[in-house]
């Protein structure tokens, strides 16, 4: 049986891929990338295309459908379908690299594929190649960092984010998908007096990347991150 | 005035550096790396040496002293001394790359140098090149990830780490420098019934890297990370 690699290609800028990830993509016969619409594009796939160029022609390059829905049945069917395509290649003895933006361990699509592949073929060898996460790139662009004894919390705003405890006990809080519920998050931070300590980073690691003092932002795009640091801003 | 780059070289394996970091190291005339003892080695410096080899001979390669002490006066004097060496090169119009293991925003030495350089030369342009953090590489090796609405907390055990709130409200907790106070951390996790959900990752991204169920570990090396995940282990 071949190996399934979860490969982080970095936050979007193709130059932020690692040497290891690039070597693996050059070596494997099959590369898979996720896309959220059946005929849509894949951001991770675009990074691969821009890096490998014509070298892709000697490989199989599969775009796998990972729909954006909360319907668990639709999701599980899509994961199973994606996994069956991957397992077919693995069973032919072909190593498969599944690419994700950022880092495969950090809010990526890779775990869903991994679980679905292991359900179909439990003997599969899985290896993860870490990448530069969106957390690291947003902190770099936002001009913020954590050091010494500082505690860091990462909180997707698609879940509950409004705990006073976390605001008081963590030095740095990073709210993921901050654009989606920006109005509610903004109100929460403002009510606790933390809005001035917040930066909003949008489209990080793309040519349109920007950082704003969060207090100045009325509307934010979906993939924004909001970083609050008690003493850095 | 030239630019000071904070360059993350990844968690230790030279192949986990990004293309961007490698390009910058090849371009700049001055590379600096931190070491904790005056005549000691620099782990980040070793990554640079193994990647650049003979190309280093055309550059200035400075090892800067960042002592391991809690004596604030000794530390500040060391930061000032390191900064004055860097500022001298910047004032000659030479770009300087300061390399750190992992990611410059994530518990690295770069912020101390940045602050000290800006104190001496406030006009300095600073840019951060994110790297693969030890967090990403330990999660990859530990076989753990965060997804969807899961909340992640990163907690250096050199500070207070014993909050029941965090254990109950975060899905994944990563304890940094877990080796240093492993006995206390182990007792804390065991008392709350979380020891079975914990993995200890040691010497991640080196040839000696290992993962253990934390319950099996009596003594742990300094740079260990302990990862607790409510539902993944």
TrEMBL record, chains A, B:
Q: Name one GO biological process term.
A: cobalamin biosynthetic process
- Any one Pfam family here would be TP_methylase
- Residue ranges constituting the Tetrapyrrole methylase domain according to the UniProt record: 3-213
Which pathway does UniProt place it in?
Cofactor biosynthesis; adenosylcobalamin biosynthesis
Q: Which UniProt keywords apply?
A: Cobalamin biosynthesis, Methyltransferase, S-adenosyl-L-methionine, Transferase
What InterPro entries does UniProt report for this protein, alphabetically? 4pyrrol_Mease, 4pyrrol_Methylase_sf, 4pyrrole_Mease_sub1, 4pyrrole_Mease_sub2, CobI/CbiL, CobI/CbiL/CobIJ_dom
Q: Name one GO molecular function term.
A: precorrin-2 C20-methyltransferase activity
**Record Gene3D superfamilies:** Cobalt-precorrin-4 Transmethylase, Domain 1, Methyltransferase, Cobalt-precorrin-4 Transmethylase, Domain 2
Q: Which SUPFAM superfamilies match?
A: Tetrapyrrole methylase
Q: Which family does it belong to?
A: Belongs to the precorrin methyltransferase family.
From the Swiss-Prot or TrEMBL record, give the protein name. Precorrin-2 C20-methyltransferase
Q: Which organism is it from?
A: Ammonifex degensii (strain DSM 10501 / KC4)
């Amino acid at each position: 049986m071949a190996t399934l690699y979860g490969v982080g290609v970095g936050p979007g800028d193709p130059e932020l891929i690692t040497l290891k990830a690039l070597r693996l993509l050059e070596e494997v016969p099959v590369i898979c990338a996720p896309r959220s619409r059946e005929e849509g594009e894949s951001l991770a796939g675009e990074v691969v295309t821009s890096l490998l160029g014509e070298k892709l022609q000697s490989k199989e390059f599969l775009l796998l459908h990972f729909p954006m829905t909360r319907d668990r049945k639709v999701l599980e069917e899509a994961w199973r379908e994606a996994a069956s395509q991957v397992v077919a290649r693995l069973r032919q003895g072909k190593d498969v690299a599944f690419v994700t933006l950022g880092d495969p361990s950090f809010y990526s699509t890779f775990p869903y594929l991994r679980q679905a592949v292991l359900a179909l073929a439990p003997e599969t060898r899985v290896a993860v190649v870490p990448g530069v996460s969106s957390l690291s790139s947003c902190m770099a662009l936002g001009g913020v960092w954590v050091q010494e004894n500082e505690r860091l919390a990462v909180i997707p705003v698609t879940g509950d984010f409004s705990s006073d405890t976390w605001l008081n006990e963590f030095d740095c809080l990073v709210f993921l998908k901050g654009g989606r519920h920006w109005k509610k998050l903004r109100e929460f931070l403002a009510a606790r007096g933390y809005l001035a300590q917040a930066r909003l980073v949008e489209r990080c690691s793309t040519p349109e990347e920007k950082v704003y003092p969060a207090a100045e932002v009325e509307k934010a795009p979906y993939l924004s991150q909001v970083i609050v640091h008690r003493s850095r801003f």
